[in-house]
Design a protein that fits this description.
One of its GO terms (cellular component) is plasma membrane. The chain is of the alpha+beta class. It is built from 38 helices and 26 strands. Strands 10, 11, 14, 15, 16, 17, 18, 19 and 20 form a 9-stranded mixed β-sheet that branches. An 8-stranded mixed β-sheet has the order 8-26-25-24-9-21-23-22, sandwiched between helices.
Length: 1062
């Protein structure tokens, strides 16, 4: 350690003490103890210009001495902890307690005489074999619970492992700019060490503590540490201390890293644990995050299913107990005895277990598992589609998106900018001029202005592959200007070498308010020159002079400005070019020292050097992606900082606007004017008049974007609430990204602030990736709907079987272990199988909706099932016209006018319901072909009726009424009934029908009279439920009928003789 302290003439404790200071106090301490920041750099063996030497040995020594820039991740939950969490499920706890109680009672075997004295209820332990194996059920239930818990814990462990891998990927992708061996390079944040010279720019998240070496118009957001929302202005002479975790909101800087994550000494960081201990109630006041669309629907559905399952479970147990009490104490008249309590306890525990298992099967606790698996699977797959999901619920929310507010540059366009047109020295060049076509004085001003007034982090690098395009690093607009300089055969790097960044007197960095950037140079004679670049129509208004050939200055009046805008700027913009104005201003010594804080005065009286038109081609895949969004019911809006002519031209190329559309295109200034009332207040009703038809918002500020997004989300002008997705790349896009339902940050061009505020990071900055996110979001919904469709089907069947079985036989046909296995199939395996479907293009053919039902929607399949069912009933109604085995069920149908009217009315109503019922009847209209198939399937009922009629009566003897066929048949009567049709005239036939009807009526009356006198036609028979099958029931000797007129109404010979086969 001593050697290290000798090597670094500044210890960790010295740096810790220094970083605890702020403002003027810190400046004083640096001056008194070290002299200045350069001297501190020397003590840390680093160069403020060239940075570290970058050797492995040096980096290792610095990590050993000052620590590593890495916070160890929070310790993951162990598998045992996950098992314990899985055991917190109330239904599983109740089931385990019941199983343990059942297991204890199963070892109690009362003597046979006690068992007989306690009665014998159905569903009890009936023989010694079953009694000896009574422990098996309780043990099996416990094993099943263990199985369910282990599977749940394993799934949770897998999920946590996957999320940690995702977090690690995000951290690994985070890079920062440092200077090493004189080269500006990007390194992983974890590789930054004390002594590094780091460069930060607008939008960066500072990865370590440091002290300013040089700053340009620097403002920092320290709200994450102090809670103060106001931006803090930083400078070398007033407040040079930078803290990790804060955001650069304006400007740029170079700083010395003095503390890394492991050794940061910010007072706020040190006080945080104290605050948490002293004020534990503060966390309670934090606003709860609103549930996602899917979470809300699933919670609501789970509650409804859970309540229904609880009611059925309670009803099952209640019926079982009531039946047990009635059977034991009322029917069998068993007296109450304390010796019988253990046996009664066995019954009660058995009933309770049945009720709990009904509840276990009814409650869809597999739902969260299915959602987790589906989301985790989707997130993993979305990485391949260039969507880095930071917040899991954003994945499914995107499936409901109804609107996308997209940036233009880089998202809809390729973000590969090139200067293709220019206006310089009084001439408009549709193609780039050659260097000798531009007067030398103007060319020198142009090249120097581009070189120093573009961020030094922006540069053109050689192509990665031979013959490829040069690599653009940094701001793409600035890269286009630097490329323009190279096209004019002037190397901007030569100018930067002569004027390094440290020699820049002052920099007014670009922001959304200025729409421009300016850099001030101090000349040898004490005068100043300022170069400016920015939006053409804004910067031209600040120009009072313009350079013309051969390098002379000409007055630039308001009329000249208007003519230039009309002839050049609008012409460039109509071709989709971004227009930039380049200008300069001299401050002679005779005017005295300017007030550099008075921006309005400084950025005036400019001299225009040139106008350039920058082309950013539309991505070739974007028009088709936007068409897919429009087919999917998603409205795409462009929100850009470009002028309205450029924005409109790009929107037409992308397909956001079609020729002849009457949609709105407006600038941010007009938008603000139209949404404010006379008192300057934003009114929702005014926003509602604009946003439905708005397609392009140009020259917009981040505030305009936030206002638009908020207005769309809060709007009630449409039936459904808008689900809005927003893209952003700038620091000030943070509020809009946070307000949106899903915020997309640009992974390449986006600032750290935008990424922190986003839900999903587009790693390729491509709009096509947003469409992929929509597909995956809808796929998540479909996966959950498929799982629900499967689970609810099994739920209903299993619960009904258990409930009806318990009510009828006093025992559940599905045992507790069996139901737990069914539950395991439904929860784990089904979730895994159905939640891993791949998305298809067909997902984009349906309309979105935040309030769309989670279960399978009304579809042709369900409508056809319903239609076939109804048509089957209609045809079955025709079958029911004949009950004596007649073949022709249509005979005499036209004689019954009422029957015909009802049938036709039912068919007509069914057609109306199917074709026009819609949502109230959960139906969709069917085609002619589908109606014909439904009719064909319904007609099958008539064929089934004919098949049933063909079955001989002798096969159905067990269906005869008691007493039927017990009298001797009258052969003479049979002979009468078998006369040939030729011998029976019409009158005789009618008389025969009348007699048959009277005989049937008399027979029915006698049977009803017998029941009225409390005489059962089956008195003396054994209960059918005590027999194993219908066959043993028929063949039993006790199945006999005593010829007693008092018990069974007998049938006279004439009646029997004239009966037809039923």
């Amino acid at each position: 350690m001593a050697n290290h302290q000798m090597h670094f003439s500044c210890s960790l404790q010295d740096l810790r003490s220094l970083m605890e200071l702020r403002g003027e106090e810190a400046v004083t301490m640096i001056k008194e103890k070290y002299g200045d920041v350069n001297a501190l750099c020397a003590r840390l063996r680093t160069s403020p210009v060239n940075g570290l030497n970058g050797t492995t040995e040096d980096i290792v020594k610095r990590r050993e001495e000052f620590g590593q820039n890495h916070i160890p991740p929070q310790k993951p939950k162990t598998f045992v902890e996950l098992v314990w969490e899985a055991l917190q499920d109330v239904t599983l706890v109740v089931l385990m307690l019941a199983a343990i109680f059942s297991l204890g009672l199963s070892f109690y075997h009362p003597p046979t005489h006690i068992r007989q004295n306690c009665g014998k209820a159905s569903g009890g332990v009936e023989d010694e074999g079953e009694a000896a194996a009574g422990w098996i059920e309780g043990t099996a239930i416990l094993l099943s619970v263990v199985c369910v818990v282990l599977v749940t814990a394993f799934n949770d462990w897998s999920k946590e492992k996957q999320f940690r891998g995702l977090q690690s990927r995000i951290e690994h992708d985070q890079k920062f700019t440092v200077v090493r061996v004189g080269q500006v390079i990007q390194v992983n944040v974890s590789e930054i060490v004390v002594g590094d010279i780091a460069q930060a720019k607008y939008g960066d998240l500072l990865p370590a503590d440091g002290i300013l070496i040089q700053a340009n118009d620097l403002k920092i957001d320290e709200s994450s540490l102090t809670g103060e929302s106001d931006h803090v202005k930083k400078s070398v002479n007033k407040d040079p201390m930078l803290l990790s975790g804060t955001h650069v909101m304006e400007g740029s800087c170079k700083f010395l890293v003095t503390a890394v994550e492991k050794t940061q000494v910010s007072p706020m960081v040190e006080m945080q644990p104290l605050n948490e201990e002293k004020e534990p109630d503060e966390k309670k006041t934090l606003p709860k995050k609103e549930k996602s669309v899917l979470q809300g629907k699933l919670c609501k559905m789970a509650m409804q299913i859970g309540k229904a399952g609880l009611i059925v479970a309670i009803l099952t147990v209640t019926i079982l107990i009531i039946r047990f009490l009635i059977s034991t104490f009322l029917i069998e008249r068993v007296p109450w005895a304390h010796a019988c309590l253990p046996i009664y306890g066995q019954f009660l525990v058995k009933f309770f277990i049945i009720g709990v298992t009904v509840l276990v099967v009814a409650v869809p606790e597999g739902l969260p598992l299915a959602v987790t698996i589906s989301l985790a699977y989707s997130v993993k797959k979305m990485m391949k589609d260039h969507n880095l999901v930071r917040h899991l619920d954003a994945c499914e929310t995107m499936g409901n998106a109804t609107a996308i507010c997209s940036d233009k540059t880089g998202t809809l366009t390729m973000n590969r900018m090139t200067v293709v047109q220019t206006y310089i020295a009084g001439r408009y060049y549709k193609k780039l001029p050659k260097p000798d076509q531009i007067p030398a004085p103007i060319l020198d001003l142009l090249v120097q202005g581009i070189g120093v007034n573009c961020a030094y982090t922006s540069k053109i690098m050689p192509p990665e592959k031979e013959g490829g395009l040069a690599c653009q690093v940094g701001n793409k607009t600035e890269c286009a200007l630097l490329g323009f300089s190279l096209d004019l055969h002037r190397d901007y790097q030569t100018i930067r070498s002569k004027i390094p960044e440290e020699k820049l007197f002052k920099v007014y960095t670009f922001n959304s308010a200025r729409k421009s950037m300016s850099t001030v140079l101090k000349n040898h004679d004490g005068s100043y020159r300022m170069y400016s670049k920015g939006a053409s129509e804004i910067l031209l208004r600040k120009c009072c002079k313009i350079l013309i050939e051969p390098g002379k200055v000409k007055a630039f009046k308001r009329q000249d400005q208007d003519n230039l805008v009309k002839k050049v700027v609008e012409s460039m913009a109509s071709e989709g070019l971004r227009t930039i104005c380049l200008a300069y201003r001299d401050f002679p010594t005779t005017d005295g020292e300017p007030n550099w804080e008075d921006e309005a005065h400084i950025l005036s009286d400019l001299t225009c050097i040139a106008l350039v038109g920058i082309e950013d081609p539309v991505r070739p895949e974007v028009p088709e992606a936007i068409r897919q969004c429009q087919r999917a019911g998603i409205t795409v809006r462009m929100v850009t900082g470009d002028n309205i002519a450029t924005a409109r031209a790009i929107a037409i190329k992308c397909g956001i606007l079609q020729p002849g559309d009457d949609f709105l295109c407006m600038e941010g200034k007009e938008f603000n004017h139209r949404i404010h009332n006379r008192r300057g207040e934003i009114k929702q009703e005014l926003i509602d008049k604009i946003w439905p038809n708005l397609r392009v918002l140009a020259r917009s500020s981040p505030t305009d974007k936030h206002t638009l997004v908020k207005g769309m989300i809060d709007s009630t002008v449409l039936e459904e609430r808008q689900v809005v997705a927003v893209t952003g790349d700038g620091t000030n896009d943070g509020p809009a990204l946070k307000k949106a339902d899903v915020g997309f940050a640009m992974g390449i061009a986006g600032t750290d602030v935008a990424k922190e505020a986003s839900d999903i990071i587009l790693t390729d900055d491509n709009f096509r990736s947003i469409v992929k996110a929509v597909m995956w979001g809808r796929n998540v919904y479909d996966s959950i709907a498929k799982f629900l469709q499967f689970q609810l089907t099994v739920n209903v069947v299993a619960v009904l079987v258990a409930f009806m079985g318990a009510c009828i036989t006093q025992d559940s046909p599905l045992k507790a272990v069996q139901m737990l296995w069914v539950n395991l199939i439904m929860d784990t395996f089904a979730a895994l199988a159905l939640a891993t479907e791949q998305p298809t293009e067909e997902l984009l053919l349906r309309k979105p909706g935040r309030d769309a039902p989670l279960h399978a929607p009304s579809s042709e399949h369900y409508t056809i099932v319903f239609n076939v069912f109804v048509l089957m009933q209609i045809f079955n109604e025709i079958n029911a016209r004949k009950i004596h085995g007649e073949r022709n069920v249509f005979e005499g149908i036209y004689n019954n006018l009422i029957f015909c009217c009802i049938i036709l009315g039912t068919i007509f109503t069914q057609i109306i319901i199917i074709q026009f019922g819609g949502k109230p009847f959960s139906c969709v209209g069917l085609t002619i072909d589908q109606w014909l198939w439904c009719t064909f399937l319904g007609f099958g009922t008539l064929l089934w009726g004919q098949l049933v009629t063909s079955v001989p009566t002798s096969w159905l003897k067990f269906l005869r009424l008691p007493g039927e066929g017990t009298q001797q048949e009258n052969p003479e009567g049979e002979m009468e009934e078998t006369k040939t049709r030729e011998e029976i005239n019409h009158a005789e036939k009618e008389e025969m029908k009348r007699k048959r009807w009277l005989r049937s009526y008399n027979r029915m009356t006698r049977v009803m009279d017998a029941f009225r006198h409390n005489v059962s036609p089956r008195k003396g028979l054994e209960k059918p439920e005590s027999r194993n099958s219908i066959h043993s029931f028929i063949s039993n000797p006790e199945f006999c009928i005593k010829d007693s007129a008092a018990q069974v109404p007998m049938i006279v010979k004439d009646d029997a003789a004239n009966d037809e086969v039923v």
